[in-house]
Amino acid sequence: MRGRAGANFDQLASDVHFLSAPLKFVWGMFVWAIVLLLSPLLLIATLVFGIHFMSRDEIDLVKVLLVVIGPFAFVFWWITIRHVNSRYRAKRLIAARTQTGDDYSDADLRFLEQVGKPRHIRNFVVLLTSLAGSIYCAHLFYNAGDQQFFVGVLAGIFSPAIIIAVYKLFLRFI
What are the b/e assignments for 37-71, b being 16+ CB within 10 Å? Predict the structure, then answer.
């Protein structure tokens, strides 16, 4: 009887682990999302307040973390801001058209059609551009001082946003 009870207990433990595995995965994803959301704040606080008290090894570790994790945090914020901004813009457009009673233009309809669609390829290109800019600027500013290195790498990380801002500014003047 002891053997049968032990087998049932092992089966129950196996079933509980099988049921809790998805929850563990979701919790891990939640923790990574929080880390990516807060990593820019943590890195900036470290650069502003902690760089004067750090040893050379700690500064090099922060440099590596900025070059590697910075583009992923940037893309996470990029996706979040673009998603919230497009949803808010769509709500404003619908409210304005409902209030005035005007018809939607073709451009409005195309925009509203594209609001809910994911843009995986565009976000992946933004990630690759940011990662390439980060690595290139790390290579370019390798022998510079710490502050110049961090500013250069941040410019590389934000290179997709800089390119889009310059492009939109260029289109405005044409």
Answer: eebbeebeebbeeeeeeeeeeebeebbeebbebbb
| Domain span at 77 | 2-173
pTM of the model: 0.68
The total of structural domains in the chain comes to 1
- Given a contact cutoff of 8 angstroms between Cβ atoms, the answer to whether 154 and 86 are in contact is no
Contact residues for 150 (Cβ-Cβ < 8 A; gap 6+): 47, 63, 66
What CA–CA distance (Å, rounded) separates 70 from 153? Answer: 9
Average pLDDT over residues 59-70: 83
Q: Do 146 and 51 meet the contact criterion of CB atoms below 8 Å apart?
A: yes
pLDDT of 15: 59
Residue 127 scores a pLDDT above 80:
yes
Tokens of 69: 């994790």
R_g (Cα) of the chain, nearest Å: 24
Is residue 165's pLDDT more than 80?
Answer: yes
Structure tokens at 12: 């129950």
Yes or no: say if 153 and 141 are a contact pair by the CB < 8 Å rule: yes
